[in-house]
Amino acid sequence: MVFPGPYFSKEKILAGIEQTMEKREEAGEYHSKDFEWEFLKNIVENDPSLSHHLHHHHQNLSKYLPDSQPWQDFHSRHSSGKFFKERRYLLKEFPELVSCGENSKLLEIGCGNGSTVLPILRGSKNITVYACDCSSDALVRTKENIDRAISSVDNFHSFCCDFSTSEFPDWVACDRCRDKFMLNHSGGSESKHCIGGVDFVTLIFTLSAVPKERMPRAIKECFAVLKPGGLLLFRDYGLYDMTMLRFEPEKRVGFREYVRSDGTLSYFFCLDTARKLFTDAGFIEVELEYCCVKAVNRRKGKDMYRVWVHGKFQKPFSN
């Protein structure tokens, strides 16, 4: 297996992958298995040059607990809004978002610049979307992108929140608190969630940016804000994805956890880790699998193996 060397610019690599992904989206083939994950696992685990990705180190790895500042800086740098493409494939991946009943409520966590919420708002008139991010700059970008793409929208509301350290405001989960919030533009008590909840929570390439030790608490927050029977829709980086294997040894800050040069974190999930995180929080597993896509750099004839984890988890109807 050959990976792009340093003589490829990052921009060219990403552009090539992006072109391939766009073609897949148009063909409706994004949720695909170009290869079996076990095939990639065998290649990686037998390549000595990649051994630093595979094992727990005996020495203590440095604890890296970032605040929201690296993401604030990230969204400031990418203020043009062109860094992310609209994730139109999500409506094919999660058809529940299109077929949902009237007055459904969705909480999008880590909305970035709106690449997830925009196709959802386009695809379903029945959903009211509540979107949060730890970066206030991201929320500004999201609103700008939605206003630019959709002439008038009254079913979108955003707020700043780091769900790995803070509770969601009560108005997200409770109709009475929500009505009060809409009138007064201020949240209710933040002590406990009221009875109620949202129908869907989307965690799309968000959980991987949370420090591993904070993940259980963050997922319990998602569980608390959902209605009984509500769904959490999950998509994130999978173990041995190309981006993981390109990290240098000194960028590793934990087992399968890395820090980028801009200070943001990235964790890579195997199915067992994802399953345990969500079921320990009380969720029932509905779907959980790897999505494996092979992109090709035509110029150099290099295969680039992308791996994502796709999951759906349900809050039980009764405890």
Automatic annotation (TrEMBL):
Does Transport show up as a keyword for this record?
no
Q: Which residues form a coiled coil?
A: none
| An MF annotation (GO) of this entry | S-adenosylmethionine-dependent methyltransferase activity
Enzyme type, top EC level: transferase
Per UniProt, which keywords does this protein have? Methyltransferase, Transferase
Task: Check the record and name the InterPro entries matching this protein.
Answer: METTL2/6/8-like, SAM-dependent_MTases_sf
Task: Name the EC number(s).
Answer: 2.1.1.-
From the UniProt record, give one GO term of the biological process aspect: methylation
**Role played:** S-adenosyl-L-methionine-dependent methyltransferase.
Q: Which family does it belong to?
A: Belongs to the methyltransferase superfamily. METL family.
What is the name of the protein in this document?
Answer: tRNA N(3)-methylcytidine methyltransferase
